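Fill-in record for Cell shape-determining protein MreC.
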Amino acid sequence: MRDTRESRLLLVLLIAIAFALITVDIRGGEDSPVDGARQGAATVFGPIESGVSAAVDPVGNAVSAIRDSGERHDRLAVLEEENAALKARLGSDDRSRSRLKQLDKMLKISGQGQYGIKGAEVIAIGAAQGFSWTITIDVGANDGIKRDMTVLNGDGLVGRVTTVGPNTATVLLASDPDFTVGTRMEASDELGFASGQGDRPLRVELLNGKAEVKKGDRLVTFGSQADRPFVPGVPVGVVSRVDPSGGGLTRTLYVTPYAAFSKLDIVGVVVEAPKKDPRDTVLPPKPKPTPRPTVTVTVTPSAEAPADGQNQQEQ
């Protein structure tokens, strides 16, 4: 339509009629004079809308159901692909074979505990952040990493995420004096809190001052509310010393951690907690006691020496 004076007047007239009909419809309520026209339109177009809705809704519902039911599976599948890519990047030389071994151990732990993990490499140690016992890893917010996620490796608990950048994250190690984690004793289920002591064994305060504990007993993480910052069942370490019970409310243990904090390389961030507590299933097999060889000493009697008198007669 050409932009003429007549076309402009027609447009203004149509707008005025539209406003008038809207005003009449609103004021008329259920007795609106245009109600019949509206019902007629509904009669004509209603079946078409219902047909389209019936055709679209089942598809939408099916897609939604598949998405919801497969969300966990898809997430784990993505993590497996990412860990496989990390594995491929490590190569095949001597150093890389060691790193592949670390990755395999870590994936075994994640499978036993049903942890969804994101594999990462350690790219810096504590001095870069001004802390004594921290590391920097090469994954961050862009990889789904968040603050207060558990970090482990193929041996056991490493620490927790404290700071997250777009592509890197800082991990506070379990050996840091400011680090504390709830623990549970294997089999006996005695609860306590482990604290870092730098390069010395972890210090654990058991809540039961009369708990029966011995050297060689093992501990795992107790887990936190909503699994943050710690998921349950991650191996912590082995009891190396037990302070004598002094009748106090708590009992002090010293635990050698499974993870070697001075030579961390490949680690995993737990981005998806297990559906149920793995309890003690993630702990490594107990070492079999080495039998001590039994030495039997047989004494052979020697020939008796001749008497002094006999020696003198022979002379």
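KEY FINDING: The chain has a mean pLDDT of 78.
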